Batch of 2 targets.
Target 1
Amino acid sequence: MEILDSLNPEQQEAVTKTDGYLLVLAGAGSGKTRVLTYKIAWLIEHKKVKSWDILAVTFTNKAAAEMKDRIEKLIGEVAKQVWMGTFHSFCARLLRRYGELLGYSRNFTIYDADDSKNLIKKIIKDKGLEIKIPPKGIAGKISKAKNNFILPDKYPIYDFQSNRIKEIYKLYQEALKSNNAMDFDDLLLNACKVFQESKEALGRFSFKYILVDEYQDTNKVQYELLKLLSKKYGNLTVVGDEDQSIYGFRGADIGNILHFEKDFPQIHIVRLEENYRSTQTILKAASAVVSNNKFRIGKELWTNNETGNKLSLYTARNANEEARKVVEVIKKYKRPLKDFTVLYRTNAQSRVIEEALRRENMPYIIVGGIRFYERKEIKDILAYLRVLMNPDDNISLARIINTPLRGIGPKTRRFLEDYAKKERVPIYFALKKVNKIKKIILRKQKVLKKFFKLMENHRCKLGKPAKLIENILNETGYLDMLREEEAIEAESRIENLNELIAGAGEYETLEDFIESVSLLTNIDEWDETQTRVTLMTTHNAKGLEFPIVFIAGLEEGLFPHSSSFYDEAELEEERRLFHVGLTRAKERVYLSYAQSRRGYSFCLPSRFIDEIPADTLEMSEELLPADFIEKMHADSHPAHRMGGTHRFNRR
DNA sequence: AGAAAGGTGATTTTT
DNA sequence: TCACCTTTCT
């Protein structure tokens, strides 16, 4: 069969072993995407499986689209009917259909982190609760609980704080429901609930063959979903690499891959250990680093690629100098800019690098950070759309009721809310009854009525999303508001809105548009045909490859991040993250750290640098004299971001 | 009562 | 750099 010809024996085994439970341990650059695409092609072409009987779950929408594309090239149009997407998009589709079983209507809104935060804030304020943890932190704790299948009633209480969180968690879930909204975690959790409660739903979504990419980053709920979905036919292929598990903070459970053998009967395991991406040197360095981890299955990656150059390490005096050095090296190469990526641990680091690139007129693109759809003006307009689709969505309504300014301040809103609560209607419908709310003066009533009428006009006849956005921008005065602003940023906001309209043009219905916008991932917006230097966090780089990779900010406390110092498991995750960074590179790796950064001086180089074998690493020419470094270490007060891990072991 | 202006503190990673 | 809070102005 020609499909198999271009695959190595292990890859062939992973492709042709179609029945039963299969775990493919695929090291970085070992061609796992290739295996998945070919496997789906093999199923359809050779095993005559109907394409709609196959479900493939990927980590990003982009990965799904690409895979679909590649399968189509292999076997043609039939590939179009394979169910492909992220866990979240799959669950959303299921819940549009079966959410009613849980008391949701099909037009429910998907809340992002910002919406969740606002909702929690509102709950705390309304109830006058006292709690020291900021809303974002509470959202994090609730999310963690959800990812571990802990419902509000089961939330453990061990002190005053946790008791409060439990209370807020409960109220939060109730509020979500009355807003007809789900957060990201609910999508997974509720999908599970649907399957547990409805045989019909489970039957309809039990695929004959299920394939999962990036399995090491699944959480308990996703794991449970897979168990439910694969039960009927028992054909499940998961592909993953425990050394690339980097999403523990959002509930990803590395145990899912470490214990896969125990949990699924008669499991078959295939290891892909040949790396097709990197040089021998890069691979050696990366393997040595990650071998310091205890929580791993362990594998030996090897490659037939050439030895290649050593990794370089550059010591900068500060973040600016580090950024300048990065740009200088890129310039020296005289290669297409798309060959380069600069990786960092935190989004905040991008700024200095951006500035340095801009100074040299070098075009760049940032993946992640403040995302397009998270910008204020975009979220405002989306809030209009969401209220039109789902009038129960009070959080979105709160966003727009006085944007642009209509003179509806906190007081008036309070009255509206009180009425809505008393009459048990959504706030949106309280707008219809403003004349019944005596507390609101006549002049304000008029304004509210006007706003309501405007919304209702659109709600009755929802046209195509692009046109709808245009109308809203004009009729609400949002565009005028921006035009009147003197600030330069108003102009870029208008540009962004035009971009939004252009983006919406690709969708026929408002539902489709909102859904895909809500479930977009960072990397989905990245276009690899672009011609610029790519800047992103190491997290976002997963699954990508570049000829030349820079990893900046390799300081103790930053990478590894100080928050991981006290927890061995978290420290190992940082190490895996670094390993992911290294293995993105095909040809060359440049590492750097700064001795001082945003108010911190005497930063120590990352311990991960020490873990790179000496014969694969060289110091960049501008290294400071050794005695200077020694003195610096002796003088330093490591307490600031060292978390007590005193280390003076530099050569 | 609502808007604008001014000051302050905090910044891990993300579906 | 930005989001959030307080103070001051209309």
Note: Chain A has 28 helices and 15 strands.
Target 2
Amino acid sequence: MPDVVTRFAPSPTGYLHIGGARTALFNWLFARRNGGKFLLRIEDTDQERSTPGAVKAILEGLTWLGITWDEGPYFQMERMALYRKEAERLLAEGRAYRCVCTPEELDARREAARARGEKPHYDRRCRNLPPGEAEGKPSVVRFLAPLSGRTVVRDLLRGNVAYENEQLDDLVLLRTDGSPTYNFVVVVDDATMGITHVLRGDDHLNNTPRQILLYEALGYPLPRFGHFPLIHGMEGGKLSKRQDDVSVTAYRDRGFLPEAMINYLVRLGWGHGDQEIFSVEELQKIFSLESVGKSPSRFDPEKLLHVNAHYIKTGEPDRLAVLLVPFLRRRGIEAEPSAWLAKAVRTFQERSRTLEEMAEASEYYFRRKDPDPKTAEKFLTPEMAPLLEEIARELADLPDFTPVAMEPVLLRAAENRGVKLGKVAQPVRVALTGGTVSPGLFEVMDVLGRDEVIRRLLHASGTIRGG
RNA sequence: GUCCCCAUCGUCUAGUCUGGCCAAGGACACCGCCCUUUCACGGCGGCGACCGGGGUUCAAAUCCCCGUGGGGACGCCA
């Protein structure tokens, strides 16, 4: 058994979101760093809300990020017999009892308690039900929690956190239909799966003392606990579906690179001196819980964009070409990965923050784009027609159609007219790309190829003369 | 309401454990300049923070207390 076994245990009620992805990442890195194992477990005991589609989406998200699990995915629905057995045991040992209160009654009492300014807790009235009273009635199984004393959570990140047991609740272990609830299964599973480090979001800190009590009642050894600060949206507070983009795959579909996502996510709540850029390999060597902060952080799409730009800038053109293809197709451009596409990619690596941006910006490599009237009027003026034709002619005569050979052609054209290069370059750029913004002119020509360059230059001059 | 957690630039953070090296460093964003065939990239510079109040100490961003603020939890959700 390795010294470290961690897990990620999402509930399949939606896609993999940013917060869950970071929790998975931290667990994974911690396991890898310590030569341990990382398991995946699907918490699907809520049959109302769990869906197969969500399971698929979560696995897809993790796979895209490159977060690999050593065991699983385990499904709790397949482990029902175990939970029932453990619940029976607690019942038999008098550490759990049947409760016949209905959800409606509980709701009403909760409301009343809140109105009185009390903590809205179950009042434990079924604790002393006469034997047999619950027979034949719908009932749940509740944990018989201690009424006094205190439970201390020894948290790896926060130190010791003490709770008065009287603040805790007799939580429901088994629902009326016999299915187990979260706080119960999580304990049974973590214990039986040999999880050594339970590392999860801060929203679970308050559950931990109850779970510790359950560990004790069940006679399980206690794992170590660690609670990460939550990730908030830019408005503060939990990431919300409405205000923030929270799905990991949505970022994939918008042209973000997985390594950028990992890099950005790991820096939310964790730091390593002044360093900003980390490869996964490096993270697996240096990630540590000690460097995880305690305060919540905000998810900032601007910075993610910056990190993604970095990875696009430094990425392998061949790989980026492969990744770019779907984004081109989405724009109706049937492209295939190729050396040519990689060359095209190279010209945009320093000016695209996402693959989506790259696909959009590089459209004119695949089909001619005509300038809008305003741009045409400004740059494709009547006196430009002979110039474009002259340039086309000279380019046609070039022994080698290379950037170094092209440059003197434009330089000469500018010199002959006594203007700066820019005066000539912009009209050519508009003729070639339909716009005033593009990679270096000679790079663009190189990608387009001699024939297409000449074709577009003459088309532009033809338009000027004809219109 | 009760319980719990947290608190350094607008944002992510370094520094806090082991007080002095901090007139607080880096990154994103923003602004200016340079480079330049456009846009970017890059380079240089600027703006910008220790939540407040008490204490401890020769010395506090760092330790303690109290406020305040933010967040989380209080479910037959996870």
Note: The first helix of chain A runs from residue 18 to 33.
